[in-house]
Amino acid sequence: MASRLIVPTTKQLIKTFATSAPAAGAASALPKYTLPTLPYSYSALEPAISGQIMETHHTKHHQAYVNNLNNAIQQYADAEKSGDLQKMIALQPALRFNGGGHVNHSIFWTNLAPPKEGGGGKPTGELLTAIEASFGSFDKFKDTMSAQSIGVQGSGWGWLGYSKERQRVEILTKPNQDPLTELVPLLGFDVWEHAYYYLYGPARAEYIKKIWDIINWQNVSERYAAAKKQ
């Protein structure tokens, strides 16, 4: 028997990319995703990440994902309304790339914090216990997360996520802007060159070494606690 072709509806796509409640458009039932405001200044993460990188990354790259996602959702809704299945299928790569870019960066910004505001160090409590249970120690987790993130071929992300099926934290890498759907995302390392090249050049390993100094473990712990309740 031939397999059934499943094409997502506009509502399903919107739900997939809704990491936070989008602002509703006044003249349309479709949401309009917006660029999230950073909880710190562009220069606050220096010297780990320069203000120039943060401003460009946030206002140019993330803004482009938001703009392109809104455009793709509108085109998809129009194609769905007219029954244009070919157009709906053709739009799915753009939805995945730009929707993933928006989801990934929205998590990434909150995963970071200036050292004077809690960034760096190591987690405590239940998150630390979960990391130690999965990796043996925090240092072993740190080494594994670093190595796998550095080893991503081309552009992509390194992730610490929570497996609801196995009830443990795990590391997984994703190419390009593919969103983490296999696990509940807790902590993401953006290893696209635009995230570090202005400051570190091709030295991705140096960038990963420095990013540990600005991890917002309170945010990661809150995501872990929420993931266990899902």
Q: Count the DSSP helices.
A: 8
- Computed over alpha carbons, the radius of gyration is 19 Å
Described by the principal axes of the CA atoms, the overall outline is globular
**Under the CATH scheme, which architecture of the largest domain would be assigned?**
3-Layer(bab) Sandwich
User: Structural class, please?
Assistant: mainly alpha
Beta-strand content bin:
5-15%
How would you portray this structure in words?
The protein is mainly alpha-helical and 230 residues long. The chain folds into 2 domains: 10-15 and 34-40 and 49-110, Helix Hairpins (Orthogonal Bundle); 115-229, Iron/manganese superoxide dismutase, C-terminal domain (minor pseudopilin epsh fold, 3-Layer(bab) Sandwich), CATH 3.55.40.20. It has helices at residues 10-17, 51-82, 85-110, 125-135, 138-150, 197-200, 204-211, 217-229, and strands at residues 23-24, 31-32, 156-163, 168-175, 184-190. The longest helix has 32 residues, at 51-82. The mean pLDDT is 91.
Q: What does the secondary structure layout of this molecule look like, with pairings?
A:
Layout: H1 10-17, E1 23-24, E2 31-32, H2 51-82, H3 85-110, H4 125-135, H5 138-150, E3 156-163, E4 168-175, E5 184-190, H6 197-200, H7 204-211, H8 217-229
Antiparallel strand pairs: 1-2, 3-4, 3-5
Helix pairs in contact: 2-3, 4-5, 5-7
